[in-house]
Amino acid sequence: MKFRNKLLAVAVAAGTALSLGMGAAQAKTFKYAFQGDLQTLDPHGLFETMTLGFQRNIYEGLVIRNDKMEMVGALAESWENTDPTTWRFHLRKGVKFHEGGTLGADDVEFSVKRLSTEGSDMKVVAALISDVKIIDDYTVDLITPSPNPILPLQLEIFYIMDKQWAEEHNSVEATNVKGGDEGNYANLHANGTGPFMVKERQSGVKTVLVRNPDYWGSMTSNLDEVIFTPIDQDATRVAALISGDVDMAYPIPVQDWGRLDDAEGVKPLAGPEARTIFLGFDQLRDELLASNVKGKNPFKDIRVRQAFAAAINLDAIKKKVMRGASVPTGLMVAPQINGFNGDLNEPYAYDPAKAKELLAEAGYPDGFEVTMDCPNNRYVNDERICQAVVGMLAKVGVKIDLLAQPKSKYFGKVLAQNGYDTSFFLLGWTPSTFDSQNPISALMACRGGEDDIGAFNLGGYCNPRINELAAAVQSETDQAKRQAMINEAFKIHKDEVGHLPLHQQPLSWGVSEKADIVQRPDNVFDLRYASIKD
Amino acid sequence: MGSSDMADTTISKGFTDRMRRFFDSDIWYSFRRSPVAIVSTGITLVFFLAAAFAPIVAPHNPFDLAAIDIMDSNLPPAWDEFEGDTRFLIGTDDQGRDVLSTIIYGSRISLVVGFASVAFSLVLGVALGLISGYVGGRLDAFIMRVADVQLSFPAILIALLIDGVARSVMPRELHADLAFYVLIFAIGISGWVQYARTVRGSAMVEKSKEYVQAARVIGIRRGTILVRHILPNVTGPVLVIATIHLAIAIITEATLSFLGVGVPPTTPSLGTLIRIGNDFLFSGEWWITIFPGIALVVLVLAVNLMGDWLRDALNPKLR
Amino acid sequence: MLGFIVKRMIQSVIVMLTVALIAFALFRYVGDPINNMVGQDTTVEERDELRERLGLNDPFLVQFGRFAWASAKGEFGFSYQHRRPVRDLIAERLPATLELSMVSAVLALAVGIPMGVYTALRRDGFLSRAFMSLSLIGVSLPTFLIGILLILFFGVILRWLPTFGRGDVVDIGWWTTGFLTVSGLKAMIMPSITLALFQMTLIMRLVRAEMLEVLRTDFVKFARARGLPDRSVHFRHALKNTMVPVITITGLQLGSIIAFAIITESVFQWPGMGLMFIQAIGEVDIPIMAAYLVLIALFFVIINLVVDLLYLVVDPRLRVDRATANGQ
Predict the structure, then answer these.
(1) Nearest residue of chain C to residue B160 (CA atoms)
(2) A42 touches chain C (CB under 8 A)
(3) Which of A381, C167, C210, C271 could make an SS bond with C187 (beta carbons 3.0 to 4.6 A apart)?
(4) Residue B95 and residue A384: Cβ atoms within 8 Å?
(5) What is the pLDDT of residue A313?
(6) b vs e for A313-327, b when ≥16 Cβ sit within 10 Å of the residue's Cβ?
(7) Which residues of B touch A510 (CB under 8 A)?
(8) Is residue C24 part of a domain?
């Protein structure tokens, strides 16, 4: 598979080159680069934006977001609530997998089961469904443990696999990180229903897709072949784009936008990402792990948190660090997220004098020292943001010892498995469901409860009312009531400065002027909407 | 009391003697005749002095967080007619630090790392070389075997491994404090072999000479023979190796910082500055990387040229 | 001779075990691999369970023992990131690294030796001085900066050469080669020059120094006195005698080239083992890191052995030396 007859391919290519100019339509090849590779072709192997975002060109779920982020049917033509805990999906008829199998209700049932096999990283999705009932070949009921109004939305990244194909290739279980002798067939091979098929896969080097001639849907893309290459180094990636070696590359460092504007044949493609970057404080421990203040925790005092909020100049970060490309924010969710409320989005006012006053009132007229944890290869300019924050806090007397590390070390230190070892940190979050319930429950609710609630509330901010609201929002089906509860949670969190939101980071893509593509706010690149001119 | 006075005078007398001998020597003559040697030594001295007196020489203190302002970031050199700022002669970096000042402070770190690691491998290498060459036998075989093995591992990989091991065995706070020394150790340990081999060769030759035999016969201790009679004979080659090694150590540190194991970016070396500046090479803010780059090249080139000249000057066969 | 080889084999095993042990100690610092294997929404319990399943909670020595035993059998485990056997990955990446290293080594020799000879013969010529100074600039710049500047100039501004990757490759059995396609050859140019620069300078200076020594020997003087033409003296007599140290150093430097390929490969996104290693560090892919380090150690051990044997073949005088050095 990997090295399939490349000699032959070269010979054919040479032949084609000779016969060029005969008027035959040239195959449209599109090359693009990202900073990393997808980890697996297995649709249930890793719950991560890039991996699932790439796979969506090959595999499809029951529903899908279109170019305007509206939810439309994909493998399901329609769906309805037959009772509060049952969602009925009517499958599209005549849909074929790449290798010829026909889509049926048993494939859906099989795929749901596959979600909870040992190797699956999608067990959170599996937990949304308590039972599957096949009504007929093209109708299937998904039963939820409790009423769930947003299930179809949550299932967008749940892709359907061909049951028979998986059985034939011994891949009925999701690809396991632990592995076996030769690995899972589905890790390097794919058989979906999507518009593109995998022709070649060399993990970490390149992946070649070709158009699926029998695709059930219609799409605007005119691409015949797609070559995807990961390029780790920013400079090399930008160089590859400007020189025309790739037609599209992302992410592009924000400082290089000007260069792309000036260069011939390429342009930057920017937009707000649905990812919010924020700061957090350890408010749980009685004494900070890394600070010169002993015997008490300054962040337990709301005035200290307010002082930090007043000391940080979001506009300066926007102008100087993000080159005007970020959107300063006061909320933990972006405007694209369901439940966003513009009235609450006003950032905390920048007022260093007030910050000093507040610190003095709280008993720290000369400030104090604390260590800040920061990733340096996870978010757009993450380390630079932290350095700017350090400088701003230095001006009100707070001395920050910055510990900026690669993401593996950073997350290894601050997350739950290491006992939330942090006093002050920077983190970013995109709600995977695109709904406000996700950050309320994961970031803002008191941690330590059941069901992993508050697992990413690294600072241990706690107001029990938010836990109540998180649970209520989960099962509330009345949209107005639901919004009111979301508003209440955000209001409490903001008044108490539970976290300190900084901005929505920009999406930063670079694209050839010959190409026509659609940029989604979740940084997913959907080839269905990508075309290229000669 | 008296004896220490006497020691002082002997030392100072020895010193002036030595100075006179130096100025009368062929080396000094060759130095004065070689413009390359004069210029490269001059440049090295300038770097050295600027680094030593960085707080006085540098126009700003780039590490004083309260003094730098993010709003001053990415300013072009002062001669730029639109955005140039006279406060910052060759512009500012992405944090608003004065590039000239970061270069001066950065050279200081690069030079300290360079000199310290060279000193470390020199002492280790010379000591092992002397012992190996003079004592011989099984000890010699063992040391040379270790040297063989280590020589085949490139310095950069050894440094990576040592840095990694240090991080894994030390608690984080301790490592942050010791990062600097770990780096020096890592770069230094990978360089001792060359010294050891050279010194061993000389020691083996000298050992059999008559004056050493004579010294041994009249009962002078082994250590004294090594230091007083054999060591002076190898200063030339060792000095040459050390100069070249200094250049290599500075470059190695820069390369390590590209791999993320150099000195922390809060106290950047020249290599770290170049790595940070790399992000701005395409965006037109060339001064953030080009000036530290030039500084590094000039420094390393000067040191290398000095080494070249020294090698030729000390090699009697080439005169 | 046989005894010598056996002795070296035993030493080699000790070296490899030490490297493996150090490599393992290293992994505890690079971070927690689990977070790179799961998504944002994976629960804490699942993360813990996965860690347990992978045996990452076992004591250090248990993990090390398991690794050493498996790699002795040629099994390097299963990559966390690629979810494939490391053995397959290495087989896939090895050709890229070896081709790049070989081309660089050849380049360094092909340019370094003539330049060394020339600068030795015309010691004070203008061109000689230019070569000497230029070669120093080459080693005064860090490799990564040279690479990026080359990309900027030849890739972005002139657009002559591809900015990244290996171009099209052709399969020959399990080997993939970039030598047989135009794009493959073009892609080779910048990375191999970047990688070769340092060695080139080293070889040039070494040849120069050795030549200068040899030219002063009586043996060459006699050759001249016999009225042999310069050409014959320089190349038949002098150059031939400088080859022993050149072979040694080049051999030893081959390992260096492979190791330095880490940087060149990551600047040019060259799909070799060095790039895979750097990526593995970033993602805490322990099995790949371990396999890479052990493999590199193996290379070095083999290179050392070969160089020693070559020594014995090329210069019989050294046999005695070597024997004494081994305390026999």
Answers:
(1) C26
(2) yes
(3) C167
(4) yes
(5) 95
(6) bbebbbbbbbbebbb
(7) none
(8) no
Instruction: Indicate yes or no: CB of A39 within 8 angstroms of CB of C279.
Output: no
pLDDT of residue A243: 92
- What percentage of chain A exceeds 70 in pLDDT? 94
Structural domain that includes position C105? 86-283
- The architecture (CATH level 2) of A9-231+514-532 comes to 3-Layer(aba) Sandwich (3.40)
Is residue A54 within a helix (H) or strand (E), and if so which, with residue range? helix A49-55
- C42 found inside a domain: no
Facing B65 at nearest CB: one of A256, A313, A391: A391
Please give the share of chain A, as a percent, with pLDDT higher than 90: 62
A interface with B, Cβ–Cβ below 8 Å = 234-235, 238-239, 242, 253, 255-256, 258-259, 313, 316-317, 319-321, 383-384, 387-388, 390-392, 394-395, 399, 402-404, 406
A47/C31 Cβ within 8 A: no
Cis peptide, bond prior to residue A251, ω within 30 of zero? yes
**SS3 state at A88:** strand
| Average pLDDT of the segment spanning C213-230 | 77
Answer whether residue C55 is part of any domain: no
Which of B161, B254, B304 has its CB closest to that of C142? B254
Residues A4-51: pLDDT tens digits?
444 444 444 444 444 444 434 578 999 999 988 888 999 998 888 889
Distance CA(A428)–CA(A411), nearest Å, equals 12
**Chains sharing 3 or more CB pairs under 8 A with chain B:** A, C
At residue C320 the predicted structure's pLDDT band, cuts being 50, 70 and 90, is very low
- How many independent structural domains does chain C possess? 1
Contact B153 C152 (CB under 8 A): no
Chain B residues closer than 8 Å to A317 by CB: 70
The residue-averaged pLDDT of C101-128 equals: 88
- pLDDT > 60? residue C328: no
Strand partners, A198: A209
Q: What is the DSSP secondary-structure string of C24-62? A: HHHHHHH--THHHHS-TT--HHHHHHHHHHTTTTS-HHH
What's the CATH number where C138 sits?
1.10.3720.10
ipTM over 0.90: no
Asked if pLDDT for residue B196 goes beyond 70, the answer is yes
Predicted structure pTM score? 0.84
Spatial distance between the Cα atoms of A354 and A47, rounded to a whole number of angstroms: 43
Indicate the CATH number for domain B34-318. Answer: 1.10.3720.10
Better-predicted residue by pLDDT, C130 or A393? A393
Interchain proximity A46–C37, CB inside 8 Å = yes
pLDDT single digits (tens) A481-491 = 999 999 999 99
* Per-residue pLDDT reduced to its tens digit, C27-53: 666 667 777 777 767 777 778 888 787
Of A307, A324, A306, residue with least CA distance to A315: A324
pLDDT, position A15: 43
d(CA A166, CA A180): 16
Question: Which whole-number Å values give the CA distances from B85 to A89, A120, B149, B295, in the listed order?
Answer: 65, 57, 54, 21
Q: What residues of C are in contact with residue A407 (Cβ under 8 Å)?
A: 35-36
Determine, for residues C139 and B251 on separate chains, whether the beta-carbon distance falls below 8 Å: yes
Cα–Cα nearest to A209, from A218, A220, A107, A221: A221
- Give residue-wise pLDDT tens across range B159-189: 777 776 676 666 666 666 677 888 888 888 8
**Which position has the higher pLDDT, B135 or C184?**
C184
Q: Which of the given ranges, A135-139, A154-158, A417-421, B219-223, has the highest pLDDT on average?
A: A135-139
B179 vs B170: CA distance, rounded Å: 10
Q: Which amino acid makes up residue A457?
A: N
Residues of chain A with CATH 3.10.105.10: 274-506
